[in-house]
Amino acid sequence: MEKEQFYYDNKIVKMFLWATILWGVVGMLVGLLVALLFVFPGLLEFTGAENAISWLSFGRLRPLHTNAVIFAFVGNGIFLGIYYSTQRLLKARMFNDVLSRIHFWGWQAIIVAAAITLPLGLTSSKEYAELEWPIDIAVVLVWVVFGINLIGTILKRRQRHIYVAIWFYIATLITIAVLYIFNNLEMPVSAFKSYSVYSGVQDALVQWWYGHNAVAFFLTTPVLGLMYYFVPKVANRPVYSYRLSIIHFWTLIFLYIWAGPHHLLYTALPEWAQNLGTVFSVMLIFPSWGGMINGLLTLRGAWDKVRENPVLKFFVVAITGYGMATFEGPMLSFKNLNAIGHYTDWIVGHVHIGALAWNGFMIAGIVYWLAEKLWKTPLYSKKLANTHFWLGTLGILFYAIPLYVAGFTQAFMWKQFNPDGTLVYGNFLETVTQVIPMYAMRAIGGTLYLTGFILLAINIIKTAKAGSTVEDELAEAAPLKKISGQRVAGEGFHTWLERKVVLFSILTTVAILIGGLVEIVPLLLVKSNVPTIESVKPYTPLELEGRDIYIREGCNNCHSQMIRPFRSEVERYGEYSKAGEFVYDFPFLWGSRRTGPDVHRVGGKYNDNWHFNHMLDPRSTSPGSIMPRYAWLVKNDINASNLENKMKGLVSLGVPYSDEDISGAKQALLTQAKEIENNLRQDPEFVKNYGSSNIQNKEIVALIAYLQRLGTDIKTTKTALK
């Protein structure tokens, strides 16, 4: 059969390559900055503590770091690999060059929008989904463009059977669309403010159904697809086992979607949902390790190349990191281990094994290999690449190991009792100061890793300068001849399925929907899952504004609002948290880490002056604290211009505000604010410093109102269950 000539589009691949490098440096730099704030809390207070800059505080920089690394660095790295490999696996240029450019520039625009809005405090607060509603819409639109381009390329392919990498790309495309849309259903109340349509327990489950599977289907499945293409290519070896790749794919996408609840063990989530998440999380180890084994054994007979080829070095450590992270994840879903690890720095170390080793090293290896292909010249310096490898590997070790030590230190210090039944470390700060040396080592690890990546950037820039500028690559392949839809002689079922792309995609969709529907639908529809508590009332207007300030400042990045039914937690914080207490929490704020203590029962624990001084200078009330100062809260006026719209939006979500509540909201806000100011003026020191200043209209008063409300809706007693 006569072959057709066509050109691969290498320009779009180069565009994503440069974006990957740029955002890699930016994301890691912000990460290092955030790590240094744990050791030097006042590091970014350039203009003095009293003039601390709001957009440089930890609570605002932390989501910027996670979004920059996940969606900017890894996201562009994934698209880099997909755009290169898809064209060659399908023997076709991408479906539409214009769509490719719209995808690229649209994605970069979203990243820039995130980089502007997150430091400004415009956030939904939901982990890995912090972007506000206009940007969410843009993400969906750009994802649709990517989807049309990928599906169009698959449909015009010249290769009959779709290779295993394409299976993973299809699963990623479908699942991320489902996850992102359902998790980010929200009620807009202004141009950059919205409330999740889910509240409390339901919001927690939907968020971690998304959060866990964002890791699964954005940071794992597409990178597995890249592994199945690039590892055999670089090693010049076929994939170890076709049959194992089939088992790996279908079991992984079916099981992963069920595992989200293991992030919520011992919380107010119903027991049946927790147990379901645990069972499927433990089962996940089998397909995950199947993928790791398939990747490593693909190198059989090529280990001598690993010594010489820096790209293969990166791949080996990446796949090993994947194996470690996917062993640790199921282990952490066992309740006895989760009771130790959850809310500690162990989880941060675990996550970064995946991010730094699996994602970072796999993408670095791909970038090095593609540089030679795209610019048709040898890599500028293999020595520099090897130096990057060793710096990066040491960086991972210096990052993760101290955090594992910190995690176990925190867990055991939190749970230790004296013979008389009191906590050995009753002051939470004792556990913070104990792990600061580990935070310093983590910062050293981050510095090493970032330095290695900067060497990569230098290496690729030098390679590009020495190479060819040709953007299109000539290729040829025979056009695809139509054959019967029936299975032909000697064709296995899965081989047949690989040429029935529409059916393949439908089966993939069914596989990922089953788990989500079984978990989420009963929790949304069956009221007995969230027993109501009559004394729980909606937030007052001032408390509502204070809660939004709490969200804006990212306080839930460091403070949980979920007391688990452990003796140690009940003794330390008060009565364990009940599902019915969160019915008016749009969104939920249970947190995933305790750099500071849990605040669910903080209401009434300290007076208003303590909170005022604590926000202005945490060290004045809590010596040794690493919490940032929030001086701007005393300077900023409460912006209640959207208060009525907020309350009306919440009414549409089921919050029982009356028409009188809404019409009188601003007056009610002023009345409660005046009460708090009067309380503050009981302190002579406050009067001395603020004299006749009008504090009642300042943001700090709203935040105090919210904090004093927390956990006060039910009568609390110290009753431990576990």
Automatic annotation (TrEMBL):
Keywords linked to the UniProt accession: Cell membrane, Copper, Electron transport, Heme, Iron, Membrane, Metal-binding, Respiratory chain, Translocase, Transmembrane, Transmembrane helix, Transport
Asked if Membrane is a keyword of the record, the answer is: yes
* Cofactor section: Cu(2+); heme b
Q: Keyword Ribonucleoprotein, does the record have it?
A: no
Major localisation: membrane
Topological relation to the membrane, as annotated: Multi-pass membrane protein
Reaction catalysis annotation: 4 Fe(II)-[cytochrome c] + O2 + 8 H(+)(in) = 4 Fe(III)-[cytochrome c] + 2 H2O + 4 H(+)(out)
The chain positions of domain Cytochrome c read 541-711
Associated pathway: Energy metabolism; oxidative phosphorylation
The record's SUPFAM superfamilies line, in alphabetical order, gives: Cytochrome c, Cytochrome c oxidase subunit I-like
- What sections of the protein cross the membrane? 21-44, 64-84, 104-122, 134-155, 162-182, 208-230, 242-259, 279-299, 311-327, 347-370, 390-414, 434-458, 501-525
Q: Where is the Cytochrome oxidase subunit I profile domain?
A: 1-471
The EC number on file is: 7.1.1.9
> Where does it live in the cell?
Cell membrane
**Enzyme class, one word?**
translocase
InterPro entries of this UniProt entry? Cyt_c-like_dom, Cyt_c-like_dom_sf, Cyt_c_oxase-like_su1_dom, Cyt_c_oxase-like_su1_sf, Cyt_C_Oxase_1, Cyt_c_Oxase_su1_BS, Cyt_c_oxidase_cbb3_su1, Cyt_c_oxidase_monohaem-su/FixO
Say which domain of life the source belongs to: Bacteria
Could you say which protein family the record assigns here?
Belongs to the heme-copper respiratory oxidase family.
The entry's protein name is cytochrome-c oxidase
- Protein species of origin: Lutibacter aestuarii
Question: Highest lineage ranks of the organism?
Answer: Bacteria, Pseudomonadati, Bacteroidota, Flavobacteriia, Flavobacteriales
